Amino acid sequence: MGTSCLESSPLLNDLKVTIHKTSMVFPSKETQKKSLFLSNIDKVVNFDVETVHFFAPNKDFPQEVAERFKTALEDALVVYDFLGGRLKLNIETKRLEMDCNAKGAGFVVASSEFKLCEIGDLVYPNPAFAQLVHKSKDFLKPDDQPLCVAQLTTFKCGGFAIGFTTSHTTFDGLSFKIFLDNLAALAAKKPLAVIPCHDRHLLAARSPPRVTFPHPELIKLDNLHTGMESGVFEASKEELHFKVFQLTSHNILTLKEKAKGSSSTNVRATGFNVITAHLWRCKALSAVPYDPTRSSAILYAVDIRSRLNPPLPKSFAGNAVVAAYATAKCEELEKGDLARLVEMVAEGGARISDEYAKSVIDWGEVHDGFPHGDVLVSSWWRLGFEEVEYPWGRPIYCCPLVYYRKDIILVFPPYGGGHGINIIVALPPNEMNKFESLFYMFLTSV
């Protein structure tokens, strides 16, 4: 099988979703009122993440899913007490904190007039999927912003979708996966799959802070309006086209062999590294107008749990990732061999030592800012959301809502399993045409 690009078949503009009930859910047991410290990594990601998890019909759960899911969510708010709390600014420390006040999470029950098989290709980022995640929060008090809202939408066939809106300050991808595992266990009336670690002081800055490395991957807020581009987390105001590119396991193996074959050194040609190098080159060279002297920076998240000394618990519930980076001139990206680009990507990950991660955290204590680069590769490839065992079965697919961000490329596992990947790219039309041409040209060239 070769590569392919999923063209957008006619997308449904309206899933005809009806909201039947909106409410707040509260912890099933009394929880302790307290403030939860947020690290400098947490505070950088103060925005919502919206994900949709699709499930096939299950004859044993025709009507029961909503109630079972709601009960599980109530129990989860005991284990994850911060999830039913609110963000607040500590006046004394001037730091953002989580107020664990048991004000609850949002819960929405809805239905669609379509069958699951009628709403189109789940892999393709249909903007109408936004109807599967509750946005209006019209059932809340004015100015009340819960950290979690869940919507369960049933389809006419009996299939359904669970849409989560969670503040990124609550979880990174790995800790959200553990949360889902625990939510599934609670729904099955089983013990927790993993006991989460809530001590975010484990990622507190040193006193005094010591920034021991240069950090070109981070930008201060006061530099955003001095001719530099804005950060990768900012939504684009341009018209963007979306495409889903696919790489088979054979394509990935070909990239690995190409990287190893053109190198005299033992380059670390992992699947992630070669895919990231390939996407970096295509994204950088698709910029209009093309400038060979322009410097391009690639960013990608690295989990620091095992890199710290002592290591963080694998069950750490919070954000424990920092941005790895590599930089090169566009001319080098165009004419250099793949092995060198893969090597630069690998060096970016290898750079993240215990001291480097602590330097990043301390930088956040001294400056207000966030990661900045030409492109951020956000990988959901091996997070395993589709492997969560709910009483009603595993999800058939999980995805975020459409990202209107041209500098973020999303990498996903394929629909139905397998060893290939899906890549979601959003670019202005002229840049998308260049990206697509480069994607296949560099993949097939010797």
UniProtKB/TrEMBL annotation:
What's the domain of life for this entry? Eukaryota
Q: Name one GO molecular function term.
A: acyltransferase activity, transferring groups other than amino-acyl groups
Instruction: Supply the PANTHER family for this chain.
Output: ACYLTRANSFERASE GLAUCE, TRICHOTHECENE 3-O-ACETYLTRANSFERASE
Q: Which family does it belong to?
A: Belongs to the plant acyltransferase family.
The protein, known as: Omega-hydroxypalmitate O-feruloyl transferase
Report the source organism: Psophocarpus tetragonolobus
